[in-house]
Amino acid sequence: IRRVGPTDATVLITGESGTGKEVVAVAIHRLSPRKDGPFVPVNCAAVPEHLLESELFGHEKGAFTGAVKRHIGRFEVAHRGTIFLDEVAEMPPAMQVKLLRVLQDKSFTRVGGGETVRVDMRVIAATNRPIEEAVAGGRFREDLYYRLNVVRIHIPPLRERKEDIPLLVRHFLQRFRPYYQSPGITEEAMALLCRYHWPGNVRELQNVVERALILCQGEEIQPRHLPRELQNGPSHLLPCLPAGD
Predict the structure, then answer these.
(1) Are strands 82-86 and 122-127 parallel, antiparallel or unpaired?
(2) Which pLDDT value is given to residue 243?
(3) Which of 69, 62, 57, 9 lies closest to 33 in space, CA to CA?
(4) Beta sheet of 82-86, edge-to-edge order
(5) Geometric angle at alpha carbon 196, from 156 and 207, rounded to 5°
(6) Considering the entire predicted model, what is its pTM?
(7) Mean pLDDT lowest for which of 25-29, 69-73, 121-125, 143-147?
(8) What gap in Å lies between CA 53 and CA 48, rounded to an integer?
(9) In the chain, pLDDT over 70 holds for what percent of residues?
(10) Residue 147 near residue 103, CB atoms below 8 Å
(11) Closest-CA residue to 131 (of 11, 15, 1, 9)
(12) Average pLDDT, stretch 137-153?
């Protein structure tokens, strides 16, 4: 992240849902010369296919039923900044062609328009799916994949980096301190957090910490404040590795 941030290279971030792909994208943006420009996230899986082109590239008044005024798309909003295309592997084939053209030419036309709009933006993309499988299966364009995959950053799931858990827990305790008062967390509770397999990754850990802060009512977080699925088993056998302050 530190090495690629100050460059203008396109970055592809991979990892399971909840591992923090957007956090990485924001960190790259903040380390870049574009840090004072906009950071524009787009969840490609959340926008209906028939609206995605307008969402990304904008449309002119009268372009379709309901287009009562010009709409500026996300790429235009990201001018001199960064656009973050989350879940890019879910993008339909027709939009993949248009995205490839934008990456190559740094220009596009709004839906229903004829004016060429030129943009200066950095592209960061992310996916939680094995994108190579999508390429091999013909669901994702190979030329677009290579255009996006200039620098690849893979975020391992939390279960493969248990040593990060104490550091992340302290981070979340600090973040929630203005809202919930607690002196900290007991070793027994921390051991339970380390033993758990975290299918929801860092996002799930954050939710568990906030829940525990609500239940502990100003006390230290103890095992009884954690969800039942975390409490089952000999947590003392699998302590966390110590993390630096």
Answers:
(1) parallel
(2) 46
(3) 9
(4) 39-43, 82-86, 122-127, 11-14, 151-154
(5) 80
(6) 0.87
(7) 69-73
(8) 10
(9) 95
(10) yes
(11) 15
(12) 96
- CA 122 – CA 79 distance, rounded (Å): 9
Output the six-digit token pair for 61.
């008044």
CA 156 from centre of chain: 13
What is the 3-class SS of the chain, one letter each residue?
Answer: CCCCCCCCCCEEEECCCCCCHHHHHHHHHHCCCCCCCCEEEEECCCCCHHHHHHHHHCECCCCCCCCCCCECCHHHHCCCCEEEEECHHHCCHHHHHHHHHHHHHCEEECECCCCEEECCCEEEEEECCCHHHHHHCCCCCHHHHHHHCCEEEECCCHHHCHHHHHHHHHHHHHHHCCCCCCCCECHHHHHHHHHCCCCCHHHHHHHHHHHHHHHHCCCCECHHHCCHHHHCCCHHHCCCCCCCC
Residue 223 has pLDDT above 80, yes or no: yes
Summarised one tens digit per residue, pLDDT across range 84-123 is 999 999 999 989 999 999 999 999 989 888 889 999 999 9
Span 6-62, pLDDT tens digits: 999 999 999 999 999 999 999 999 999 999 999 999 999 999 888 899 999 998 888
Instruction: Give me the residue label for tokens 């973050």.
Output: 84
